[in-house]
Amino acid sequence: MKKVVSILFTVLLVSFAFSQVEIEFWHAMGGQLGETLNSLVDTFNRENPDVHVSAIYVGNYSALNQKLLSTITAYSQGSTTDLPTLSQAYGNWTAMYLFSDVVQPLNGYIEKDPEFKEAWDNQIFPVLKDLVTWGDTVYGIPFNKSVYVYYYNPDLFDLFGVNPPKTMDELFEVSELLTMDLDMDGEMDQYGLGARNFIDDFQIFLYAHNATFLEYVGDGKYKIVLPEEKTKEVLSYIKNLKDSGYALFQNAYLDPQFGSGEIAAYMGTVAGLTYAEQSSRGKHGVAWAPLPSVDGVPHSPIAGTDLIMFNWVGQDQKDAAWRFMKFLMDPVNVAYWSINTGYVPIRRDVEEVPQWQTYTATDDKPTIALKELETAIPDPKPAAWNDIRNDISTVFANFLNDMATVDETYDAIVNTLEKGLKETGEYAE
After folding, report:
1. Fold type of domain 21-146+303-378
2. Contacts of 234 (CB under 8 A, 6+ apart)
3. SS3 label, residue 103
4. Do domains 21-146+303-378 and 147-301+380-424 have the same CATH topology?
5. Which is nearest to 292 in space by CA: 205, 193, 379, 196?
6. Which CATH code fits 147-301+380-424?
């Protein structure tokens, strides 16, 4: 009898195992980020025994995008092997995949779930919803998101009795005040500000002046809305900072120069806090403030990826994938992800989660970052954006290196936008 019961129990276990819905989730989260993600995946699998999510680390973002593109190409040619259910993706990746009609719209899931619909409408930050929405169609959920903040050396600022700047005029004044030739050899040893000659930093200055590049007009088309006079004003402001010697511009990340004291402040993402702390350890403190702007309200770009679902899997996998996406968007799980990774929470009501309240009780930096989401500006998300980004970075670097005038630089940026959008058919005449 015991043998029969044992056999029946084994059969039931085998039957149950085969009844599980299997989901592949491709991601680019390595190291501590990957460990935190795997912890969430393990919790979901434990709480949902009828579903098994396999989180597969593909490599860095570039490797992930290339693998997704090759998989989409193979699928279009009839291959049905090695197909993920979910993946991380930047908005411009999603726009590219939409050309192949492989991304699952999520409106139906959102609309059929009143509790989630309420959270989507009122708790998820609008800027993050914008990044996953084309027209009225939602193609993803926000996942690992960062805002930019003004990193500064609090020891130095306290020594000079200055506060972090709130306006662009104050940014210039503080940068001037903290630029010094400490050993009196005729060379600056300490710059008031550090910046990179990439599009990321150009965007920070541009958004600070309430200007942006593109506007989505529907049907996969974008209109160039870069204002000429304001953009030239921004370019002149940046060049004046550099030529006056108050800002150090370079190609690489700025946390080493910040830690060594070569720069007093810089603008970077909240995800870079660990690097700033490591480079500054034993030398000085690390603090951050909201980004300065012309109106004193921070207008941060958004960095980081979203989660998308593919429509090439069966309905049972789609339904299971949606359960996993909802799980990741639960306030407690959002708090856990943010606390353990440094990414900014994607929903407002995280502030009601006890773990988040404890986390922020003695450190206001996470709260500063969270509040920046209310006035942040969504990045452009056409399929052409990755190539456009690279080209504008080159244009911006050439300008900083005195290879082009303000007028020539503005024209080059507009031409870059137009050329890139036309190549992908996303240009609105």
Report:
1. D-Maltodextrin-Binding Protein; domain 2 (3.40.190)
2. 202, 205, 206, 208, 209, 211
3. strand
4. yes
5. 205
6. 3.40.190.10
Contacts of 345 (CB under 8 A, 6+ apart): 334, 335, 337, 338, 356, 370
More confident residue, 91 or 15: 91
Cα(90)–Cα(381) distance, integer angstroms? 8
**Angle 367-87-253 (CA atoms, 0-180°, nearest 5)?**
50
Neighbour-count burial for 254-273, b at 16+ CB within 10 Å, e otherwise: bbbbbbebebbbbbbbbbbb
Give the angle subtended at the CA of 124 by the CAs of 123 and 125, to the nearest 5°: 110
Tokens of 257: 């120069």
Copy the structure tokens of residue 65.
């995008």
Q: Any idea which residue has 């500064």 for tokens? A: 152
Share of the chain above pLDDT 70, in %: 96
pLDDT digits (tens, 9 = 90+) for 107-130: 999 999 999 999 999 999 999 999
Name the β-bridge partners of 146: 303
Token pair in block for residue 340: 């353990």
Task: Give pLDDT tens digits for 361-375.
Answer: 999 999 999 999 999
Q: Which of 74-78, 89-93, 183-187 shows the lowest mean pLDDT across its residues?
A: 183-187
φ, ψ for residue 364, nearest 5 deg: -90, -5
- Rounded CA-CA distance 376/129 in Å is 12
Residue extents of the structural domains in the chain: 21-146+303-378, 147-301+380-424
Q: Is the pTM of this model over 0.70?
A: yes
